[in-house]
Structure formats: structure tokens, C-alpha cells
Specification:
This protein folds into two domains: 167 residues, Beta-Lactamase (2-Layer Sandwich); 238 residues, Phosphatase 2c, domain 1 (4-Layer Sandwich), CATH 3.60.40. Helix content is 43%, strand content 21%. It has eleven helices and 14 strands.
Length: 439
């Protein structure tokens, strides 16, 4: 009785130590090193072998553990070299686990052996063996329960470590997305500039993931100040990098710098896109990403808009006089796709009351509650309705986003960034005389 009491106390102490180790461990490998020792001592045998499986079912060779250490090197080597264990799904195949049991039994050469599975959420995560080289085990239900208890704790440890690794990966991803969001926010203007004769409003509605949406307003003569800058020619551009996350944001940052330098050249839109494409070739070819970009410039003195398109969604133009919407498009390939790409250009006069809408495909590709997309036709109808209201650019923009939100639904999130820029020509304008100083 005294001997039994000592064994019970010893086992209780072992189990308490095991529970503490499980609660406090930060290194799975070190925890698994301890498990064969605990298993062997709980049932009073000399040897134990732990064979964990990786999440894909392969043998987890780096975490094979066995005691006694000095007598188990050959056993570990044979298990590690077990050819079927190198295959994905090995640990999920009962016949392969039986083959592993047979290998262990042969290597132990007639030793008493007991094996049990390590199972977590219905999946085999490994095998735990206890053995006695002296011969058959003096075994009881209590022994079996103890070994199964150790196996269950091993399963919990492996599962917890997987969750911890997932959490760390998600944290790194969240950090990346945060950095990407910061990059993207820095790309976009804080506010719309004052340009004579027009009213501007712009907004980017970010999705969960960071996208590559970009819009910008750039004076072609940044040296001008005050009212002279307001009357000068302005570049208005909108684009989208194919892809999401930090790489897309970094590429758009690079492209933005190139574009701002090109704007200073004063070249027409088609030449701007041609040169931009040439400059971006090497960097974009290595990244395997491309950019859609609509580039335009507006001259307040003549109210003429020149534009070229690198495969971006064509902006929509509401004509106040004709009371209809048309698309502004020109031939051109994606930026970064082909080094010798050529781009067409067009120009159009803007009249008082006209409304021009630039947008990215996150608007027209937005999914509705029924699974359909917002699509261009619905956007055209929304623009017609908003433009007829007589509101300014900000009111029209708010109206369009409100319609988009109702379509997507309050409980749903956009799949991609949705960006829109609204330019409205102010009513009752007369063309100003051309100043020789600006010509």
C-alpha cells in the first residue's frame, strides 16, 4: 500500500508538472522533448518514442523524440528514413500508420510495446509509443489512460503551436496591410486643388485589403502661384495597380514619382503615357504587375480636356446640354506590359454644367447582395440622376457613393478599393481672355 501511495504521489506530481509545462511552454520542440520522459515514468517503463506529424501529414522529422537517448539513435534514424513518411498525407492513412507501427516493433526486437494515436480535431497528429526492452508490459487500464492523457496533451500542444504560428502570420499580414494603407493614403491628395471654372471632389473607399488605387491632380506649371496657378493647365489622373497589398502600393508610389516628373515636360497625354511606360518597363516586368492609367490635362482658359488611356476604365462625361452620358476613351495598353506600346489621344471641350466622372474598377465590380455586380450601366444611370440634381461636385460624389453603398448592402464590404473623382464645370461661365503671360 505504501508503495502504491508513493507511485500515486509520483504520478500526480508528474501530471501537475506536465500541466504547468503545457500552460507555460513557448517552445514546442522543448515541450515535445519532455513528453517521452513523462510517458515512460508514468507507467514505469524504460523507453518511449514520440513520432509527430506535420500539418500536411508527413513525418515531422525535426521533432522525433525518444528515450533512453543513448540507445534510441538507431530507432530515430530508421523512423526518420521511413520512405512513406516523406509523402503528404502519410499520417492520415491508417494502413501507413500500421506500417510505421511494424517498423517500430521490428526495431525494438521483441520489446513490450504499447502505441496510441495523437489526435487533434479529428486529425492524426502523431503516434506515441512506450516500450520495455525487458519484455512484455505489465499493463492495466490506468496505464492506458495515463498514456492516452499524455498523447492528448501532446495533441493540444501541437494544435496550440499551430494556432500561435497562424496568429503570428496574421499579425505580420496586418502589419503589412497597415503599412500598405499608409503608403496608399500618402499617395492620394489631402484635398482637391482650386482650378478656375471647375468644381472638384474625390474619394477612395478602401476595402479590407490594401489595393493599388491612385488619383492625383498636378499643375503642369508648379512654379506658378495663386490665381495664375488656378488658371494654368492641370493634369488629372486616375489609375490602378493590378494586385493588392504593400507591393502594389510601392509600385504605385514609384509610378507616381515618374509621372510627376513627366508632367513637368509639358508633353501631350499620349507622349506622357508612352514615356512613362518606357521608364516603368524594367521595374514592372520584374514585379509581374501592370498598371491601368487614365491621364488627362485640363486648360481652364479654353476648357479643353486632352486625354490618353492605358487600358483604364473610361471616364464618363455627362453633357448638360444634351442630357446624356458618353465615355472618354482612347487606344492604349497597360503600363508595363509591352515596351514599344503606343497610345492614342483625344480631346474634348467641356461646357458649363458638364460633369466628368473618373473611377476605378472597384466601383463597377462591387458585388451586390444578390451576387450581381454594380457594372458600368448602373453607374451611368446613377451619374445621370446625380447630375440632373444640379448639385456641385461633392454632392454628386456623395450621391454616387450612397447609391453604391445601398447596392452593396450595409452588412457587406467592398472586395476592392473603390475610387471616384468628380469634375463639374461651373455654370454661367464665359471663357476668359488668354493672358500672354500664360500662353
Amino acid at each position: 500500500m505504501e508503495s502504491l501511495s508513493k507511485e500515486q504521489r509520483r504520478n500526480q506530481e508528474l501530471l501537475v508538472s506536465l500541466g504547468f509545462a503545457l500552460r507555460s511552454f513557448t517552445n514546442l520542440h522543448r515541450f515535445l522533448e519532455l513528453m517521452p520522459v513523462v510517458a515512460a515514468r508514468l507507467v514505469g517503463v524504460e523507453g518511449a518514442l514520440l513520432v509527430p506529424f506535420q500539418p500536411d501529414g508527413r513525418l515531422w522529422r525535426d521533432n522525433l523524440q525518444s528515450i533512453p537517448a543513448n540507445q534510441s539513435q538507431e530507432l530515430i534514424r530508421k523512423v526518420a528514413a521511413f520512405e512513406p513518411g516523406k509523402s503528404i498525407g502519410f499520417g492520415f492513412d491508417d494502413s501507413q500508420i500500421l506500417a510505421l507501427d511494424g517498423l517500430v516493433q521490428r526495431q525494438l526486437n521483441g520489446a513490450g510495446l504499447f502505441a496510441t494515436s495523437i489526435v487533434s480535431r479529428g486529425r492524426h497528429r502523431g503516434r506515441l509509443y512506450v516500450f520495455d526492452p525487458r519484455g512484455a508490459l505489465a499493463w492495466s487500464d490506468i496505464h492506458r489512460r495515463h498514456i492516452q492523457f499524455v498523447a492528448d496533451l501532446i495533441a493540444i500542444a501541437i494544435e496550440n503551436d499551430g494556432l500561435l504560428q497562424d496568429s503570428r502570420r496574421h499579425k505580420r499580414l496586418d502589419q503589412q496591410l497597415s503599412i500598405g494603407a499608409e503608403i496608399q493614403a500618402q499617395l492620394l491628395p489631402d484635398s482637391c486643388p482650386v482650378i478656375e471654372g471647375v468644381d472638384l471632389a474625390a474619394r477612395c473607399r478602401p476595402a479590407f485589403q490594401v489595393g493599388g488605387d491612385y488619383y492625383d491632380f498636378m499643375p503642369t506649371r508648379p512654379d506658378l502661384i495663386g490665381s495664375r496657378r488656378e488658371r494654368g493647365r492641370w493634369a488629372l489622373v486616375i489609375g490602378d495597380v493590378m494586385g493588392k497589398g504593400v507591393p502594389a502600393g510601392l509600385l504605385m508610389t514609384m509610378l507616381r514619382g515618374m509621372l510627376r516628373a513627366e508632367v513637368l515636360s509639358g508633353l501631350p497625354p499620349d507622349r506622357i503615357l508612352h514615356d512613362l511606360n518606357q521608364l516603368a518597363q524594367e521595374d514592372f516586368s520584374q514585379s509581374h504587375r501592370f498598371v491601368t492609367l487614365f491621364y488627362s490635362d485640363f486648360d481652364p482658359r479654353t476648357r479643353r480636356l486632352r486625354y490618353a488611356n492605358a487600358a483604364h476604365n473610361p471616364p464618363l462625361l455627362w453633357r448638360e446640354q444634351q442630357r446624356c452620358v458618353s465615355r472618354l476613351d482612347a487606344p492604349g495598353l497597360l503600363i508595363g506590359l509591352q515596351p514599344d506600346a503606343e497610345f492614342g489621344s483625344n480631346e474634348v471641350p467641356l461646357e458649363p454644367g458638364d460633369v466628368l466622372l473618373y473611377y476605378t474598377d472597384g466601383v463597377t465590380e462591387a458585388p451586390g447582395m444578390t451576387g450581381t455586380r454594380f457594372e458600368e450601366a448602373r453607374l451611368i444611370r446613377a451619374l445621370e440622376s446625380a447630375s440632373r440634381s444640379g448639385e456641385g461636385a461633392q454632392g454628386i460624389l456623395d450621391n454616387l457613393f450612397s447609391r453604391l453603398d445601398r447596392f452593396v448592402g450595409n452588412d457587406h464590404q467592398l472586395e476592392d478599393d473603390a475610387s471616384m473623382v468628380v469634375l463639374k464645370v461651373k455654370d454661367g461661365l464665359t471663357l476668359p481672355s488668354v493672358s500672354s503671360s500664360l500662353a
